[in-house]
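Quick review question:
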């Protein structure tokens, strides 16, 4: 789905109020709604409006844990590189200076300890809680796919505002600060004493399916928002924004049929509407207004129910 801002109609003003309250109270937003209703795109809208940069996204699945989203450490690669370095030293007939006698032993140990940073990388969750000057926007997508303990582990993190990296904490007496990779492309950050503590609490947006039972503890901590299906006016505005500020000819007919089919059962995804309009614009470049037969054909081909098993 395109990251397009919906119009500020009466149906959306309550959502805007919830977003503002979330920012003021530093509480996560918990968005529920059918697939394709625009839950994930809200995080991008917030980041764009406030100028908070790239959105950090954690897509939850059944194997996800809070620890793995905070950071990942690869000791096997570290051991492999150490073995290669030792083999190279033996071939060259030299000695690994990190363990050589004499000289500045403390400096050698410090250099060796800091080398762990090459094998440790912060995930989207861990990067969001770095001490940034401005808060980062963190999207935790599909929370309902995680295991039972995931919400309580998240609450512990939210309440503490930081986390500990044991692999770095054990080295704090040798190397107080270690540079590690982050979730941002080619990004690095210093971690002092193996502890990360945010200076600006991140803007957290959690998404969850409509039919999922959310634990009361998470509901108590978050601001719940139900994303309602957009109206015809809102859909037309989304279409116009997606296509560069104007709605292609004939899109109104597709929007109306899209709403009619959504009303007949489970709501369809906005992605499906945008795909149909894009297809009409490309195929009918000479005469872009779709005929009723074309609308019916596109509806049957593209607008399948998201919980349907049909191919």
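Suggested answer, residue by residue:
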């Amino acid at each position: 789905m395109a990251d397009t801002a919906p119009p500020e109609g009466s149906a959306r003003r309550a959502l805007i109020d919830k977003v503002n309250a979330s920012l003021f109270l530093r509480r996560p937003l918990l968005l529920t709604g059918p697939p394709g209703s625009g839950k994930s795109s809200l995080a991008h809208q917030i980041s764009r409006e406030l100028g908070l940069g790239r959105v950090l996204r954690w897509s939850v699945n059944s194997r996800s844990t809070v620890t793995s989203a905070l950071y990942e450490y690869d000791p096997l690669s570290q051991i492999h590189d150490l073995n290669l370095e030792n083999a190279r030293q033996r071939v060259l007939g030299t000695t690994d200076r990190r363990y050589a006698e004499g000289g500045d032993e403390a400096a050698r140990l410090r250099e060796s300890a800091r080398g762990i940073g090459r094998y440790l990388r912060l995930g989207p969750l861990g990067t969001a809680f770095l001490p940034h000057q401005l808060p980062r926007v963190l999207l935790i997508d599909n929370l309902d796919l995680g295991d039972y303990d995931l919400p309580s582990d998240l609450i512990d993190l939210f309440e503490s505002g930081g986390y500990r990296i044991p692999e770095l904490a054990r080295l704090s007496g040798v190397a107080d600060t270690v540079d590690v990779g982050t979730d941002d492309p080619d990004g690095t950050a210093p971690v002092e004493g193996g502890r990360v503590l945010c200076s600006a609490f991140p803007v957290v947006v959690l998404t969850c399916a409509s039919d999922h039972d959310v634990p009361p503890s998470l509901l108590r901590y978050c601001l719940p928002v139900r994303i309602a299906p957009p109206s015809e006016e809102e859909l037309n505005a989304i279409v116009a924004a997606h296509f560069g500020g104007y709605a292609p000819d004939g899109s109104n007919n597709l929007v109306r049929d899209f709403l009619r089919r959504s009303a007949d059962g489970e709501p369809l995804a906005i992605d499906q509407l945008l795909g149909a309009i894009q297809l009409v614009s490309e195929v009918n470049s000479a005469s872009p207004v779709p005929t009723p037969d074309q609308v019916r054909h596109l509806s049957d081909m593209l607008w399948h129910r998201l919980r349907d098993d049909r191919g």
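Why it works: Residues 52 and 125 are 16 Å apart (CA to CA). Residues 1-7 have pLDDT under 50 and may be disordered.
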